From TrEMBL:
Name this polypeptide is given: Phosphoenolpyruvate-protein phosphotransferase
EC supergroup of this enzyme: transferase
Residues that bind Mg(2+): E183, D207
Organism (species): Kiritimatiella glycovorans
Portion of the full-length sequence here: 261 to 585 of 593
GO annotation (BP), single: phosphoenolpyruvate-dependent sugar phosphotransferase system
Length: 325
């Protein structure tokens, strides 16, 4: 089976009736790029940049970040790399800057909240990403945004960094696409307000499920309640896709849900444009995509929106994946 899946490497991620889905990969380290080629994913849909910052005494310098981002961009070009700005806090503590004694760390000083308060850390990262953008197809993405005020503040900081680089005569992609992660219920429910400020949405379902169902994603006692096929989650996904497409914005999923082969038809049927998955899962997802008919995926999604129980949704999804296997 593995051999068969490997043969999919060169095949496009297209349904049996010709509907193209973008299949990209989530990475934490630049070294993982070779896995992309091996497993036939095109581009990086989520580069979790915080791994460059963890397990070291001080944040990495702008230059060293620019080197890493630039080499990833060069290696992937013309395929895109979506570099997510620093997402620390929650269970990823930046030891030199944060403490682990917040009462509700996942609701606390995390990701974009931390970055907007710490321009001394955020600005060098934005500059490094901009500098890397001339080497390939680089996109910026902000994590954990809960309101447009934050999004606008982040974009203002980005514009400032662009001005500086222009003054310094440093080249960068003037049209670098900017996206926002949709991983907080308020962002999902007001996605249309975010649309004018970005080029793409990427659904972080790991956090979106955690916050929507109030289930700590790292607490085993409540993990049985962590249900990606909960109707509340499906409604949010559907809403975000609609809001995105109405505004000519493409919509990706980069949470673990995207890498579940049983759920791929449902997500495609809901209109998701891109699935970004752990590299080793890419062949399995591509296999499902290539056997699937887009028309069946649409029908499946419509049906699933009618079911009351997450278990029924999953069962119906499993039936379809078995039928096409
Ligand atoms: C997510 O929340 O779904 C996501 C992709 O981000 P992370 O898992 O890094 O929080
Ligand atoms: Mg997240």
């Amino acid at each position: 089976i593995l051999h068969e899946l490997e043969q999919l490497r060169e095949q496009p991620a297209k349904t049996a009736d010709g509907y193209a889905v973008r299949l990209s990969a989530n990475i934490e380290w630049a070294e993982e790029l070779r896995l992309l080629r091996k497993h036939g994913a095109s581009g990086v849909g989520l580069f979790r940049s915080e791994y460059l910052f963890l397990n070291r005494a001080e944040p990495p310098s702008e230059d060293s970040q620019a080197d890493v981002y630039g080499s990833v961009a060069r290696e992937l070009a013309p395929e895109p790399v979506v570099i997510r700005t620093l997402d620390v806090g929650g269970d990823r503590i930046l030891p030199s800057e944060q403490t682990s004694n917040e009462l509700n760390p996942f609701l606390g000083w995390r990701a974009i909240r931390f970055c907007l308060d710490r321009p001394d850390i955020f600005r060098p990262q934005l500059r490094a990403i901009l500098r890397a953008s001339r080497h390939g197809n680089v996109r910026i993405m902000y994590p954990m945004v809960c309101c447009t005020k934050e999004l606008k503040a982040a974009n203002r900081m980005l514009e400032k960094c662009k001005d500086e680089l222009r003054d310094e005569g440093v080249e960068f992609d003037e049209n670098i696409p900017v996206g926002v992660m949709i991983e907080i219920p308020s962002a999902a429910l007001c996605a249309e307000l975010f649309a004018p400020h970005v080029d793409f949405f990427s659904l972080g379902t790991n956090d979106l499920i955690q916050y929507t169902l109030a289930v700590d994603r790292v607490n085993d006692h409540v993990s049985h309640l962590y249900e990606p096929t909960h109707l509340a989650i499906l409604k949010l996904l559907q809403y975000v896709v609609e809001a995105g497409h109405k505004n000519d914005i493409w919509v990706s999923i980069c949470g673990e849900m995207a890498g579940d082969p049983v759920l791929a038809p449902l997500l495609i049927g809901l209109g998701i444009d891109e699935l970004s998955v752990t590299p080793i899962l890419a062949p399995m997802i591509k296999d499902v995509i290539r056997k699937l008919k887009y028309s069946d995926a649409r029908e499946l999604a419509q049906k699933c929106m009618q079911y009351r129980s997450p278990v029924t949704v999953r069962r119906r999804c499993r039936e379809l994946t078995r039928e096409i296997a």
